[in-house]
Amino acid sequence: MKHVGIWIDKRTAKIVSIEAGKESLDTIVSDVEEFHVGGGSGSRSKGVQQDVVQDNKYLERKKHQLAEFFKDIVMPIADADAIVIFGPAQTGEKLYNELLEKHSQFKNKKLSVEKADNMTDNQIMAWVRNYYNSGK
To answer: How far apart, in whole angstroms, are the C-alpha atoms of residue 128 and residue 134?
Structure first.
């Protein structure tokens, strides 16, 4: 039985795999750009049409970049029997929804999402180990 834990934010995914008593940690770095919406348009009044167009472009580009990031995560976890996704932001919930909606191989697997703060690699591995040892 293969258990997987994924610590994720929009910049990085840390994938911990536990199988037959062996643990491994892989890191996937995203290409999601840091966007700073607002300002710099040269317009003195905020909230004008130009700002709305820029916001829409930003959101659409971010959505596509997140989708590519999630594709990179799917391959190494495809053979997992149970997956827990955890992290500090909403990216974990987005990944969870993506797995259920767009990847049928995950519909019959045990999936869960938990909130967690930033952690070191050792803390991430210990968190996943404790999660599965507690019977979840």
So the answer is: 10
Residue 68 has φ and ψ, to the nearest 5°, of -65, -40
- 10 neighbors 109 (Cβ within 8 angstroms): no
pLDDT in tens, the chain (136 residues): 999 999 999 899 999 999 998 999 999 999 887 765 555 545 455 555 555 557 788 788 888 889 999 999 999 999 999 999 999 989 999 999 999 999 999 988 999 999 999 999 999 999 999 999 987 6
Alpha-carbon dihedral of residues 57, 59, 65, 66, nearest 10 degrees? -170
Residue closest to 91 by CA, chosen among 113, 74, 75, 71 = 113
Q: How many CB atoms lie within 10 A of CB 68?
A: 11
- This prediction has a pTM of 0.82
Which pairing describes strands 2-8 and 82-87: parallel, antiparallel, or unpaired?
parallel
Measure the CA–CA gap between 16 and 24, rounded to whole angstroms: 6
